[in-house]
Amino acid sequence: MIGQMISKKPYVIANIDATTPWVTVFTFKSADGSTLDFEPGMFGMLTYRDPVTGAETTRAFSFASMPGTDTVEFTISMIHGRFTSHLDDAKIGDVYYLTGPYGQFKFDRSKAKILCIAGGTGIAPFLSMFREKKRDGLLVDCTLIYSVKYPKDIIRETELRQLHKDIGVNTVVTVTRPNELPEPWSGETGHIDSKMIAKYVGDVAGRKCYICGPLAFVKAIKAALKELSVKDEDVKADVWG
Fold first, then answer.
1. What digits encode the pLDDT tens for the residues 41-86?
2. 144 SS3 class
3. Global pTM?
4. Residues β-bridged to residue 145
5. CA distance 77 to 121
6. In sequence order, what are the beta bridge partners of 29?
7. DSSP 8-state symbol, 34
8. How many CB atoms lie within 10 A of CB 106?
9. Which of 83, 118, 155, 174 has its CA 20 to 30 A from that of 148?
10. Number of CB atoms found within 10 A of residue 17's CB
């Protein structure tokens, strides 16, 4: 159950992890030590407040952390935009402000079998769900198909391997630009389509399917699932960017 929504509550940067060349994972800790309840898949609005002018810049990010703790984690593409430019020079101890949680991209706990398809930082809500399952000691019948440009773009690669051992998440990573790699990639390659999904998920029509990524990615995956006779009501998507 979701607790009370918070509005521009101060959160302090507790950890900064440049996990890939283009993505940094920021961990924020509530200034007063309180916990935040939300459902995996939801997002928060993070606000930077200029210490001199008081001007505010806000952007939405999906929670990658599990609910019910005094920290929140966001996987952020460092695109040097209006908001992320502030994070370029961020340091531990800096104060930001969090509002939320928001969103309808929630996981149906009644569905025993699920398929998760992520593009880039779209892995965040799935990490939140998997971490909650691990905390609660619950196994899952889940296949995660994760699309990245290069192997070095895989977010939390070691953790994803461990989640397979701990709760049963079967992760398939596909690299979309294998021809640009200095060394051969032994895993899956190319964009996710109906053939790739069918290759790894034989019973896809019997699963609840979740998609998270940019708009073009989400549209392509929805079309692929339709080719595999997945019903519209069994598909939920979260679009970012």
1. 999 999 999 999 999 999 999 999 999 999 999 999 998 888 999 9
2. strand
3. 0.95
4. 117, 172
5. 7
6. 12, 71
7. -
8. 17
9. 83
10. 13
